[in-house]
Write a structure and sequence with these properties.
This protein is α/β, with parallel strands linked by helices. It contains 15 helices and 13 strands. The strands form two sheets. The protein has a seven-stranded parallel beta sheet, with helices on both faces. A six-stranded parallel beta sheet has the order 10-9-8-11-12-13, sandwiched between helices. Helix 7 crosses helix 9.
């Protein structure tokens, strides 16, 4: 029986691929022991136990960004955190640490290195974070979601996807999706989403330009986010909803999407062949723009700066695209060609290689 410690959390971008890998490990190895290392403050504190996995909680210790008292205390606290994780590794008989980035991953990699056990890494963003940049120097087993990600020993594995996305047959599910959202089966559908919290720029622009989009013969399925003030419209074929708990069906109903460029969104749309207009949010390390880079270069998506995404841009650039169905079909094929649908399997294979101490010959 192999014992796995999956380290990561804080945001859905870390937790969801972690859980997809955990589930696939259990599919393949039902007697495996899978534990998750995280913090009490992160999203993992809710999602991991809900999925049935044991969460080992350690202190949240962000890397200092400026010289201050916290920075002076950091080295000692970091050494203590590494020692705590080492003890957990010994107590639970861990064979491998699989890290997904975030606060707990860096000390987990160092603890694994000190304990002499295997390390495997998954990097979800095209621009790797500091924890995985460190970890990639400690192991040859590094999986990346995007071809353009630059890490030592990187192997393209794609994004480990949610099971309902991985198994989705868009064509087969389209009829169910059309009925679920009360859409018109005779019209193409533009899916608009800024994530669960919404995206104000996307929401305001699409709401203001909805008439021109509908005038191109399309209908709009607009997931505004729970914080949005947009709640109703008098326009027929413009469907507003604050939250969607069946994004698999939303993707099945859609022919084109307008969305932020989070790693999961880009990966899911590309894997399922949904072309998109990505409006990246300039946060963090600017990773959203880079996440969209591969599929944009392949011709499966467009990218527009957040500030440039205006009703005028919609009229000038988006409406002509909506009127070119052949181009949209070509974009869909190009997105699908670059997408990775079996990321969970690929990542588990990399983890298995790490345990065996082998390197895939295609690396």
């Amino acid at each position: 029986m192999t014992s796995y410690l999956l380290a990561g959390g804080g945001t859905a971008g870390h937790v969801n691929p972690l859980l997809a890998v955990a589930d696939r490990i259990m599919d393949r190895e039902p007697d495996a022991k899978v534990l998750v290392l995280g913090t009490a403050e992160g999203l993992e504190s809710r999602l991991v136990p809900a999925r049935g996995y044991e969460l080992l909680v350690v202190a949240r210790l962000p890397f200092p960004r400026r010289p201050n008292a916290a920075a002076l205390r950091f080295p000692g606290r970091f050494r203590q955190l590494i020692a705590t994780i080492q003890a957990l590794i010994r107590d639970h008989g861990i064979d491998i640490v699989v890290g997904f980035g975030g606060y707990v991953s860096a000390p987990a990699y160092l603890a694994a290195r000190r304990e002499g056990i295997a390390i495997a890494i998954h990097e979800a963003n095209a621009k790797p974070g500091i924890a995985n940049r460190l970890g990639a120097r400690l192991t040859r087993y590094v999986g990346v979601a995007f071809r353009s990600a630059r890490l030592p020993h990187a192997r393209l594995v794609g994004m480990p996807l949610r099971r309902e996305i991985e198994s989705l047959d868009r064509a087969a599910a389209r009829r169910v999706a059309i009925d679920y959202f009360a859409l018109d089966p005779r019209k193409l559908t533009l899916l608009v989403t800024g994530g669960s919290q919404g995206a104000k720029r996307i929401n305001d622009t699409v709401y203001a330009a909805a008439a021109s989009i509908l005038g191109a013969g399309w209908q709009i399925l607009h997931v505004t986010g729970e914080r949005s003030e947009l709640t109703s419209t008098e326009l027929a074929d413009y469907h507003l909803m604050p939250y969607c708990d069946r994004m698999d069906l939303a993707i099945a109903a859609a022919d084109l999407a307008v969305a932020r460029a989070g790693a999961a969104t880009v990966s899911e749309f590309s894997a399922l062949g949904l072309p998109a207009v990505y409006v990246p949010l300039s946060i963090g390390n600017g990773e959203q723009r880079l996440n969209a880079q591969d599929v944009v270069q392949a011709g499966g998506a467009l990218i527009v700066d957040n500030a440039a995404f205006t009703p005028e841009w919609v009229a000038r650039d988006l409406v002509p695209l909506l009127q070119d169905r052949a181009l949209i079909a070509d974009m869909a094929a190009r997105a699908r060609a670059i997408g990775v649908l079996d990321g969970a399997d690929r990542m588990v294979e990399l983890v298995t290689d790490a345990i065996r101490g082998t390197v895939n010959s295609s690396q």
